[in-house]
Amino acid sequence: MPDRGGGPTGPRIRAGRPSRRVRTLLVTLGVLAVLGMAFTMFAGFWTDWLWYRSVHYSSVFTTTLSTKIGLFFVFGLLMALAVGVNIWLAHRLRPPLSAMSMEQQSLDRYRMAIAPYKKWLLLAVTALVGLIAGASASSQWRTWLMWVNGVPFHEKDPQFHLDISFYAFDLPWYRFLLGFGFAAAILSLIAAALTHYLYGGLRVTSPGARATAAATGHLSVLLGIFVALKAVAYWLDRYGLAVKSSDFKATGNWTGLRYVDANAYLPAKTILFCIAVICALLFFATLWRRTWQLPVIGFGLMVLSAILIGGLYPAIVQKFQVQPNEQAKEAPYVQKNLKATREAYGIDDTKVSEYAGKSTTTDKTKLRNDANDAASIRIIDPNVVSPTFQQLQQMKNYYGFPTNLDVDRYPTKDGKEQDTVLGLRELNLDGIPKNNWINDHFRYTHGYGVVAAKGTEADSNGEPVFTESDLPSRGDLGTYEQRVYYGEKTTTYSIVGGPQKEIDYSDDSGEKTTSYVGRSGVNLDNPLNRAAYALSFNEPQILYSGAIGKGSRILYNRTPKERVEAVAPWLTIDGDAYPAVVKGRIQWIVDAYTTSNGYPYSSRTTLGDTTADSLTATNNSRAVVAQQNQVNYIRNSVKATVDAYTGEIKLYQWDTHDPVLKTWMKAFPGTVKAKSTISADLMDHLRYPQDLFKVQRELLTRYHVTDAQTFLSGSEVWQVPDDPANDSGSAVPPYYLSMKMPDQTAQAFSLTTTFTPNGRDNLSAFMAVDSDPRASDYGKIRVLKLPTSTTVDGPKQVQSQFNSESAIAETISLLSRGHSKVEYGNLLTVPLDGGLLYVEPVYVRGGSLKYPLLRKVLVTYGGKTAFEDTLDAALDDVFGVKGTTTTPPDTGTNPPDTGNPTVKQALADAQKAIDAGKEALQQPDGPDWDAYAKAQKDLEAALKRAQDAQSKTEKPSGKNGS
Predict the structure, then answer these.
(1) How is 736-801 classified by DSSP, letter by letter?
(2) End-to-end distance of the chain based on CA atoms, in angstroms?
(3) d(Cα 150, Cα 455) in Å, to the nearest integer?
(4) How many CB atoms sit inside 10 A of residue 562's CB?
(5) CA gap 484, 680 in Å, rounded
(6) pLDDT of 772-784, one tens digit each?
(7) Exposure class string for 79-105: b at 16+ Cβ within 10 A, else e
């Protein structure tokens, strides 16, 4: 037979082995792949470091990173050592091999297979468990920093009399350590048991003893450690009862001890702790007794006790002691929950006053005058008029306004403050004439200017009365830096400051260009930086594009909320960042919260659900940015600003007493500025935050009562009504409004909402909080509680009443004919002389117009409803008394004979304009709003001509008047 494997007559061919060239190529590719992966990881780290350094918050990056790395290595090594030492010990304690059974003979194949690789296998196993444990531990960096930097609350829980900081800062860390200990004990036990089995220390089918003495002692110690940890868990569970959530039939979600917890679970946990300690000692005693008998009996006793004492006994107490007399048994614990919840959410100082809901004033003139003083009623709805701003002030397609505009306070020319609706003209990349990489990231880089309008009036066409408008913007705000490089709609990166000029804005003379001169962003002069960003942004052109040169800087993370969240990852960010012009610069103002989930006895709430309303249902960008969704403590502890041009981020301490903020300031020193550094100009524009208000109003639906018996009965439970102007079925949003409550002497900028009884539509309460930080009552919550013996119409009922009146319904039908659409604005509620005044603007969008215009105003008071073209006319109608505003005279079908031909002609023209307006509203395809607007302008001009001509006729001449 020929030698197929090669022989003296020829070389042996090694089938299947690659050549040296192929091996070299494979090695090279492998090295390049490893280097590529390494640089990818490095690029992410490097760009993060560069960004944090560019915003001067590098300490946040280094502290967070070092904490994660420290936890990763410490707990990764501890887990690796725990598992590795027990594997090594189990191998060392292996019995000598003698006559082998069939079981041992089958295992011998595995022992021989791994024998050459025992050390490598041990390293691989320990490295794997170490990596997993380290990665899990590194995610606990917040828990570690809060534990090591925690400051006391100087308040104690009512059950164990421990400082609240124990529950907020210490207990979460102890629970993590306990969980890590359980994981280490279980993994070590499994690893040791497998090793003992592999090397004969444990036997399943072999005759004789099932375990060697060494294996018995080793595993019993590990089981003893596990049971000892269980004892620690029982002890910590005692304190955990103070922050335990449960479903309480009388109140729904519940946090803290109830009767059964204090009188059954608490003693049961103490007894189980003692039993677990004894059981652990029995396992440790196996080192000397070398028998499993006593430990197994002890462990069985512990399990049985857990079932009987920890489960059955509390159920018996609940069934036979609590349920027959629940209110009496639970009342003391409910009282603790009431007190703790109100304190934790900052609603403990809420002023609840009885309010009649119906006026007893018969003086109509007084009511009419009081209506003007009660509130600066805002008929321009910031959540409706954004398309109007867009149509009238967009100027260029590459500009845009946010879906929901903002309300702020700005002085008028006479120095008085007025509620102002405003938005920034931000960059809209979808409107760029031609999208390409250069246009999207180099030429179109920023928005331009503020657009503002009076909140309390519209012009004769139903358009907002702008106080700041045009491009560049000009008006009451004076001179300021108008370029907007950072904004809510700016979600992509831009490269600025280099050789490529940017489009600044366009006017009649053409495009104006500019170059960014701020120090924001990261410098791209360094080739390493360019390579890192090319990789991080998956855009290779960053590496070689000629549009990038000396001075080029890359701007990213440009929305105000994400910038604040990045530099303060321990804060929860309010969903509504709003712009303000402060000292000649546009500043985004961002409210931020510190939260905790460990306030004893305080009921938990889910931020995502509690802060949802009809606006967040249609605009996800207004959702809260929450670090933890379930909380039972919240404070508006930080006010942050982001400069719209430079992107500079400043954090200001707002709540100087908040221990959670003090803890984070200790962990990240120098990141939060003192409250005293807030300038007076900035203070003018700060306000009470919406998301905190929504959380508080949700809690106040139940926690407005302070008596445990009333709370348990559920007779006083309220609910936040659905938005009557929105079909989403979501809660009505709170509204900013300058108004005065019955105990106030002057209007205050406030945030308001209404409540209805649970499951009903009539009004049960009205709530307002003073939102002007310059006032002494800032943050003061006032609730007007309506009587339960009579009913007062709530928002939904007012809207239904409005829709059901035949005259109003007929007008609405007329306004919505053809392609027109009626849109309802914010339904505002204003307390007035014991009653409640409802005001709702009505907008019409359609026909040739693509944006809503204010056409009517609904006013309801004391059961009477008015539906007029203006707010003053509606108020006059409701109260039956003319206000101070003048209305055009009714010219009738024929102009009166004045004797003056100019006046006659002017009045005839006025009548024609009136007829033209009516005709425009009655077109078969729906109202022609362009024609209607023209008719209104013609009417105004004609009446002015008539007035001027009449005044000249009546003016005495100089000769006869001397």
Answers:
(1) EEEE--TT-SS-EEEEEEEEEETT--S--EEEEEE--TTSTTTT-EEEEEPPSSS----HHHHHHH
(2) 150
(3) 45
(4) 16
(5) 23
(6) 999 889 999 999 9
(7) bbebbbebbebbbebbeeeeeeeeebe
671: DSSP letter: S
b/e map 193-203, b = 16+ CB within 10 Å: bebbbbbbbbb
DSSP structure class, residue 923: -
More confident of the two residues 291 and 736: 736
- 623 vs 608: CA distance, rounded Å: 7
Nearest CA among 85, 110, 90, 88 for reference residue 202: 90
Give the pair of three-digit tokens for residue 197: 């089995």
| C-alpha torsion angle, residues 599, 600, 601, 604 (rounded to 10) | 30
Asked if residues 624 and 572 have their Cβ atoms less than 8 Å apart, the reply is yes
Map tokens 């962003």 to a residue. Answer: 521
Write the Ramachandran bin of 451: left for phi over 0, alpha for psi from -120 to 50, otherwise beta. beta
Which has the minimum average pLDDT: 68-77, 426-435, 638-647? 426-435
Say if residue 540 is preceded by a cis peptide, omega within 30 of 0: no
- Percent of the chain at pLDDT > 90 equals 56
Tokens representing residue 280 in the block:
């652990």
| DSSP symbol at 342 | H
| Spatial CA neighbour of 685 closest among 408, 378, 452 | 408
Which distant-in-sequence residues (6+ apart) come within 8 Å of 300 by Cβ?
none
Contacts of 566 (CB under 8 A, 6+ apart): 51, 52, 557
The structure tokens listed for 677 are: 């550094």
Torsion angles phi and psi, residue 743, rounded to 5: -95, 5
Q: What DSSP string runs through 116-173?
A: GGHHHHHHHHHHHHHHHHHHHHHTTHHHHHHHHH----S-B-TTT--BHHIIIIIHHH
Instruction: Say which residue the tokens 């403050």 belong to.
Output: 417
In the DSSP assignment, the letter for residue 673 is B
**Sign for the pseudo-dihedral over CA of 110, 111, 115, 118:** positive
706-720, 754-768, 889-903, 918-932: which range is least confident on average?
889-903
Quick one: tokens of 127?
């490295």
Single out the residue of 416, 418, 415, 419 nearest to residue 407, CA to CA.
419
139-148, 393-402, 662-671: least confidently modelled range: 393-402
Half-sphere exposure of 303 (CA within 13 A, CB side): 6
The pLDDT tens digits for 841-871 are 999 987 666 789 999 999 999 888 999 989 9
What's the CA gap between 536 and 539, in Å, rounded? 8
pLDDT at 496: 95
pLDDT in tens, 797-837: 888 888 888 888 888 888 877 677 888 999 999 999 999 99
Torsion over CA: 466, 877, 805, 814 (sign)? negative
User: Which tens digits make up the pLDDT trace of 95-108?
Assistant: 876 546 666 666 67
Say how far apart CA 929 and CA 725 lie, in whole Å: 23
Q: Are 844 and 820 in contact (CB under 8 A)?
A: yes
Distance CA 745, CA 733 (A): 26
What's the CA gap between 901 and 946, in Å, rounded?
A: 10
Q: Tokens 């729906």 label which residue?
A: 926
Report whether 502 contacts 448 (CB < 8 A).
Answer: no
**Chain-wide mean pLDDT for the chain?**
86
Mean pLDDT, range 504-520, rounded to an integer: 87
**How confident is the model at residue 404, as a pLDDT?**
92
- Scanning 568-707, the segments in alpha helix (DSSP H) are 607-610, 614-618, 659-667, 680-683, 690-703
Whether residue 148 has pLDDT greater than 60? yes
**Residue 911 class from Cβ within 10 Å (0-12 exposed, 13-18 middle, 19+ buried)?**
middle
CA 375 and chain centroid, separation: 30
The structure tokens listed for 940 are 């105004």
Amino acid letter, residue 643:
D
Residue at 229: amino acid letter: L
